[in-house]
Amino acid sequence: MSDTSLKLISESPEDTFNLGLAFGLKAVERGVIALIGPLGAGKTRFVQGLAKGLGINASTVNSPTYSLIHLFDEGRLSLCHIDLYRLAGPEEVEEIGIEEDFECDDGIVAVEWADIAWTVLPEKRINLEIKDRDENQREIVLHGGDCHHRDWIERSSTLAQLKETA
C-alpha cells in the first residue's frame, strides 16, 4: 500500500462491523485507530467488530460517551475504547489527562471523535474517516501514519473484501 489513502464502500452496518472484525483479526501488536465521522455513521459499529476480532465480546462494546474510556482486557490484545464526543477540544483532553491512554502498551486504542484531539494523538496511527454517501452506503477512508499502521490497513482491508472507490 502506498502513502495514499485507501477508500472503501460499506453497504451496511454489517460491512462496517466486518471491516472492524478484519482489523481485530489482523492486529498483531499495539496500534491506534482514530475514528472520524458524523453521528450515527458507524464508528462504534466498527469498534464492536474490532473487539470481536480481538476475542472480546462485541455486545459489551457500546459508545463510552458518558465515561469517555472503556478498557477491555479479556482478548488476545486489550482494547481501549475512547469517545471524545463531549469534549470541547484538545485543551480539555489535556486538562483531564487522557492523552496517556492513547499509548496503550499492550493493545489497541480506538478513539471516536478523534478530530477533537488531533494535536494530542500520536502521529503513528490509522485515521479512519466514515463519510455518508447515501442512506445505506458509507465511504470509509483509511490512512496509515507509519509503516506498521499502513501494513495493518492492507492486511485488514484485503480480509474485509469491501469494494474500493476511486
Descriptive overview:
The chain is α/β, with parallel strands linked by helices and 166 residues long. The mean pLDDT is 88. The protein has 4 helices and 8 strands. Helix 1 runs parallel beside helix 2 and helix 1 packs across helix 4. It has a single domain, classed as 3-Layer(aba) Sandwich (Rossmann fold).
Question: What's the structural blueprint in terms of helices and strands?
Answer:
Layout: E1 6-10, H1 13-26, E2 31-36, H2 43-54, E3 69-72, E4 78-83, H3 90-96, E5 107-112, E6 126-132, E7 138-144, H4 147-160, E8 163-164
Parallel strand pairs: 2-5, 2-6, 4-5
Antiparallel strand pairs: 1-7, 1-8, 3-4, 6-7
Helix pairs in contact: 1-2, 1-4
Index terms:
8-stranded mixed sheet, globular, Rossmann fold, single chain, 166 residues, alpha/beta, 8 strands
Number of strands: 8
Q: Into which percentage range does the β-strand content fall?
A: 25-35%
The strand line-up of the biggest sheet is: 3-4-5-2-6-7-1-8
CATH superfamily: P-loop containing nucleotide triphosphate hydrolases
Quickly name the level 1 CATH class.
Answer: Alpha Beta
The largest β sheet comes out as: 8 strands, mixed
Number of helices: 4
Please name the CATH architecture: 3-Layer(aba) Sandwich
The residue ranges in which pLDDT falls below 50 over 5 or more consecutive positions are none
Give me a quick take on this structure.
The chain has helices at residues 13-26, 43-54, 90-96, 147-160, and strands at residues 6-10, 31-36, 69-72, 78-83, 107-112, 126-132, 138-144, 163-164. With 166 residues, the chain is of the alpha/beta class. Strands 3-4-5-2-6-7-1-8 form an 8-stranded mixed β-sheet.
